[in-house]
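Figure caption, in words: inputs first, then the predicted bound structure.
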Amino acid sequence: MTELTLQKDAALAAIADAASLEALDEQRVAALGKKGWVSLALKTLGQMSPEQRQEAAPAIQAVRAEIASAIEAKKAALEAAELESQLASETLDLTLPAPVRPQGSVHPVSQVMDELAEIFADLGFAVATGPEIEDDWHNFTALNMDESHPARAMHDTFYFPDAVPDGGQPASSSEALGQKKMLLRTHTSPVQIRSMKEQGAPIRLIAPGRVYRSDSDATHTPMFHQVEGLVVDRDIHLGHLKWTLETFFKAFFEREDITLRLRPSYFPFTEPSVEVDVGYSNEGNRRVVGGHGDAEGHDWMELGGSGMVNRRVLEMAGVDPDEYQGFAFGLGIDRIAMLKYGMNDLRAFFDGDPRWLSHYGFGAVDQPTLSAGVGAPS
Ligand code: DAH
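Bound structure (3,4-dihydroxyphenylalanine present):
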């Protein structure tokens, strides 16, 4: 019995000294484990006489209970101490900025708008904007489409209900009258008028933005994106237009073998007018631009319209057409994005599907630069 008491005292001292949960567990195994000294002591009961056993059994059980509860108490104390030290060392500084977790992505349309701005800025163009809720005069009349002009019908315009003229007085000029009629702009061309009226000539700008038409199928959505270009200066001619578009498309698609085709066309606000096509081929199910012309398996995609600014438009915007000439163009941003980045369905652009966005989107820190390649994917 004395031996058991000695073992017990030694074990209680070791338990009290245990500095970690691991050290404590070693003590538990040494005492209460299968081959621990308490277990071995319990096994000796079998060889004892009934009288001896009656005396020894409660004593050994008492030691066992004492050791077990000492271990339990020490375990709780060690766990509490561990939590304390964790709380003391792991501080959370709520004044720090949030960790940067890249979430979301830059939509290809936004990316292409940044690419456009980068390329045209290098050519000396400023970026201009105008309102999406536009008036009839800027959207049509000033662009040489007066009220009876048949070209208006092609535009599938979203009109707002008529506004009442101020004070109920009939407006006098056609500009004042037109400004009362509001609509969602059908193209970015009204920004030409607003910019010329504000800044006069010479002028060199692009105007990217949303435009609206009542039209919807696989290749048309009621809202889409255009970029307008306008250069007005002395002695501007069609050669400047062609060089500018070619230079732009070579930089945009990052290849030299771009073939552009200018087809004679008609727009009320340009004279002469041309439509701009780019050559492409189908590789796999992907459209690839460049160097294809009319050869077999290759085709042309229409990217927009352009021409020399009609002198009536310059006049209406307050620029003297005898002193200044200009060229203008309007390109579909969604289309050139599809061609460059290989999407097939325009409607997916505006579905907001996170899988599409994470596949086709760009990292927020990947700003397009001419030196790094305008469209460097993330
Ligand atoms: N505004 C025209 C459209 O939306 C496109 C266009 C054609 C713009 C010729 C121009 C241009 O600046 O010169 O269909």
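The longest strand covers residues 270-283.
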